[in-house]
Write a structure and sequence with these properties.
Layout: E1 5-10, E2 18-23, E3 28-32, H1 43-49, E4 54-58, H2 75-88, E5 94-99, H3 101-112, E6 117-123, H4 137-145, H5 151-157, H6 159-162, H7 165-170, H8 172-183, H9 189-201, E7 215-220, H10 229-237, E8 241-246, H11 253-256, H12 259-271
Parallel strand pairs: 3-4, 3-5, 5-6, 6-7, 7-8
Antiparallel strand pairs: 1-2, 2-4
Helix pairs in contact: 1-12, 2-3
């Protein structure tokens, strides 16, 4: 049985309202979601981690149930928003787990607010910079032009890029569950474009050595959206980084490989 969930809002400035949810009890874990997705997209991970931890999810400004006059155009600004959520919950220090764009934001949280981070999980993400490996032209074209499609059509069209072949062939039911959850929340095209820009501008590569907390770098080996070479690059630059690759798995590995959540739980537990 899933623990009870509390909800509320954080207000990083007079014009911004960030919706958050807190599930479970124990040491706090902050989950930071990726491009265009609400905190609700973490539902599988919350089910696993909330057995032993207090799990906090939130919607980035402009996404889902959060509001702001303008979306944040940088991963630095998104990181400050995430810390505002911790402030609203009176949480001094948390384990932080970011996925995709959320992983870029998590890097910035650790760099800009190091005292707020106990440990770090960086999933399916990139450090940015000139040595980072970008997706191929087909993938990039899809994500930069998806706003030209109706929302549901775009969600289904993204399947070929977000999920590995094994998941598409054997676990279509999981993908359908993801898309049902995704379509249940509002989607703001302006916020999506702004967050694409934030991802394109992100660059923490030369500063990763400053992150002095235990870190787990997790990545699907068949990720087309953020190539796995980025995981090797990040792990090589983190003083306390450990790399965990998921065989035959694409970008949204939390759907494809449920064992990934258990691995993250073990990592947080070992940090103590």
């Amino acid at each position: 049985m899933r623990p009870a969930t509390a909800t509320g809002t954080a207000h990083p400035d007079l014009h911004t309202q960030l919706y958050w949810e807190s599930t479970g009890e124990g040491r706090p874990v902050l989950l930071v979601m990726g491009l265009g997705l609400s905190g609700g997209a973490w539902w599988r991970t919350v089910d696993t981690l909330s057995r032993d931890f207090r799990v906090i999810t939130f919607d980035n400004r402009g996404v889902g149930r959060s509001r702001g006059l303008t979306p944040a155009y940088t991963t630095e600004a998104l990181a400050d928003d995430a810390v505002a959520v911790l402030d609203a919950l009176d949480i001094t220090r948390a384990d932080v787990y970011g996925l995709s764009l959320g992983g870029m934001v998590a890097q910035q949280i650790a760099l800009r607010h190091p005292r707020r981070v106990r440990s770090l999980v960086l999933g399916a993400t990139t450090p940015g910079g000139r040595r980072a490996k970008t997706a191929d032209e087909e993938v990039m074209s899809f994500f930069y032009n998806r706003d030209q499609r109706p929302r549901e059509e775009a969600a289904w069209a993204s399947v070929a890029y977000n999920y590995g072949r094994r998941c598409r062939e054997k676990h279509a039911d999981r993908i359908a569950e993801d898309i049902r959850h995704r379509l249940a929340y509002t989607f703001d095209e302006d916020a999506y474009k702004a967050h694409l820009m934030a991802a394109a501008m992100h660059n923490c590569a030369s500063r990763l050595h400053r992150i002095q907390v235990p870190a787990l770098v997790m990545h699907g080996e068949d990720d087309r959206v953020v190539p796995v070479a980025n995981a090797h690059l990040i792990a090589s630059r983190l003083p306390e980084g450990r790399l965990h690759l998921l065989e035959g798995t694409g970008h949204l590995y939390t759907t494809e490989a449920p064992e990934a959540d258990a691995e993250v739980a073990r990592f947080f537990d070992a940090v103590g």
